[in-house]
Amino acid sequence: MVPAMRRDAGRDPARDEQLALACVRLELHDGPRLRRRIVGLPIGLRVKRLPPSALQAWRELERETVADGRIFTLERSVAVSPVDGEPRTFHRIDSVDWVQILPITADDEAILVRQYRHGAQRITLEMPGGLIDEGEEPATAALRECLEETGYRAHIARPLGAVNPNPALFKNLLHSFYAPDAEPESAIQNTGTEITEVVLVPVSDLEGLLVSGEIDHALVAATLWRYLSLHRRR
Predict the structure, then answer these.
(1) pLDDT tens by residue, 164-212
(2) Domains of the chain (ranges, CATH numbers)
(3) Which of 18-22, 60-64, 179-183, 225-229 has the lowest mean pLDDT?
(4) Distance CA 7, CA 40 (A)
(5) What is the model's pTM?
(6) Strand 158-163 to 174-179 pairing
(7) CB distance 90 to 96 below 8 Å
(8) DSSP readout, 177-217?
């Protein structure tokens, strides 16, 4: 049995409810790589297309790697403004795509993890997630990360869409999923730099954790708000 901390030992029975899903294709950006199908929109939810932008993309002249980290590289890029034709220098972080997943038990408890984040230099409350391995599908990576970081096995990863972490700095995508009926299977596979602690949270408590700021990881918050929004609209 995987050790876990429960926020609410005595709670209402699990809701027998699943999201009604439909697929809508949105053109998020110019360019085939960033055209993503947003999956998980409920039936009846209307998505309005905005008028096209009059802005033009900058033309890149050169690019070089100036630093190589363990999980990303820092690039220096020179690009020409479409307005005045002048070249300007940018710095950009390059990484493979990421995944995160919201596993949910049969008792309607979200399986979250606490871990130390050195950027913030504190313990944070998050969802399991990580880097996509070469040749790995996002859903497969999400299920793998779930098992590694929580010890819970989920058998299906249902997509919640993909977002760019910060278009000013990143060019990769974060693919998000949720997984019903996750079950404990094995011990957490901690590593030298990644040590996690499982926390079981009733799904009904997630909104409070977001509003209070106890969950303040922006990408985790974005995925949880999307899940909660879709869940309510059913």
Answers:
(1) 999 999 999 999 999 999 999 999 988 888 899 999 999 999 999 999 9
(2) 59-93 (no CATH), 96-233 (3.90.79.10)
(3) 18-22
(4) 28
(5) 0.80
(6) antiparallel
(7) no
(8) EEESS-EE-S-----SS--EEEEEEEGGGHHHHHHHTSS--
